[in-house]
Write a structure and sequence with these properties.
This protein is an alpha/beta fold and about 110 residues long. The chain is about 20% helix and about 25% strand. Helix 1 links the parallel strand 1 and strand 2. It starts with 16 loop residues before the first strand and ends in a 9-residue tail after the last strand. About 25% of the residues are buried. The model has no long low-confidence stretch (mean pLDDT about 80).
Length: about 110
């Protein structure tokens, strides 16, 4: 596991790279068979993330393959829960990423502001 040490201010500078780690590795059981408003959740979440100021988007998958043009990483231990998925995502970020925004794929009302 990588250890991070940051001696600067507690917020990223305007030139630092910020990535979004979208956790989409679960079994899709939270909403049952019908997602809210009958729309797939991940595309809506990715639209909101891309409307924000992040520089990169990484989707962590697990139980299901996802159809997306975003960069993905498969988490082999997704059944262990969101912590395992988060670790997979953070471990897959580029070394020059200074900050990460963690986003749940089943959060369709995400506001990019």
């Amino acid at each position: 596991m990588q250890t991070w040490r940051h001696d600067g201010p507690p917020w990223p500078a305007a030139t630092d790279l910020i990535s979004a780690v979208v956790l989409a590795a679960g079994a899709s059981s939270r909403y049952g068979d019908d997602p809210p408003k009958q729309q797939a959740l991940l595309p809506r979440v990715l639209d909101a993330v891309r409307a924000s100021s992040v520089d990169d988007v990484l989707v962590v998958t697990g139980a299901h393959d996802v159809d997306t043009d975003a960069r993905t990483v498969a988490c082999p231990r997704w059944e262990r829960g969101p912590g395992a998925s988060l670790r997979c995502g953070l471990d897959s970020l580029a070394e020059d990423v200074e900050a990460a925004v963690v986003v749940l794929a089943d959060g369709p009302d995400l506001d990019p502001r």
